[in-house]
Amino acid sequence: MEKTTNTVAQPIGAKPGIGSVETAAAGKAHNKVHGVVVGGIVAALYIAVSALIQPFGFTQVQFRVSEMFNHLIVFNKKYIYGIVLGVFLTNLFFSPLKAYDLIFGVGQSVIALLIAIICARFIKGIWARMVVNTLVFTFTMFLIALELHLAFGWPFMFTWLTTAVSEFVVMAVGMPVMYAINKRVHFEKIV
């Protein structure tokens, strides 16, 4: 009886199953799916935490605890997708100023996250990156102050001060929290 084997044509000198086009394509597909899943989880966590503190996330003093997830960007820039999706969906579902928040709120997050990504190229150390990230998010709250000024006529400078202080508090408290969680789960390796 003759023994038959199923073989796939390999390039000359290639080892079967190692370095093949199929293996590389499968690896890339797995990485994309993994990235989408992780981004979805980050977005879901952002939405869930925002829902818990909903009344405090959309006022002149915004203690949106979910903003601490912005620190994920210092561990890996790929977290930007999940964070932005979380902000977008939170503002879509919960904001009393839907259109304003979808423009200004999401815009502020995107701008601050991109600045943090650029700064991370020049800053070494997680703590230093988190400090800069906190300051960037605090400063860019002028966009939220502008939004609230346009929507409600609230005084711009005072609203910038109150939203910036609340953002600073949340981000500063979030630094040791995210650092401690990272020690356990290693954010930089998840995405």
From TrEMBL:
<dbReference type="InterPro" id="IPR010387">
    <property type="entry name" value="QueT"/>
</dbReference>
<feature type="transmembrane region" description="Helical">
    <location>
        <begin position="79"/>
        <end position="97"/>
    </location>
</feature>
<keyword id="KW-1133">Transmembrane helix</keyword>
<feature type="transmembrane region" description="Helical">
    <location>
        <begin position="130"/>
        <end position="152"/>
    </location>
</feature>
<dbReference type="Pfam" id="PF06177">
    <property type="entry name" value="QueT"/>
</dbReference>
<protein>
    <submittedName>
        <fullName>QueT transporter family protein</fullName>
    </submittedName>
</protein>
<keyword id="KW-0472">Membrane</keyword>
<feature type="transmembrane region" description="Helical">
    <location>
        <begin position="36"/>
        <end position="58"/>
    </location>
</feature>
<feature type="transmembrane region" description="Helical">
    <location>
        <begin position="158"/>
        <end position="181"/>
    </location>
</feature>
<keyword id="KW-0812">Transmembrane</keyword>
<feature type="transmembrane region" description="Helical">
    <location>
        <begin position="103"/>
        <end position="123"/>
    </location>
</feature>
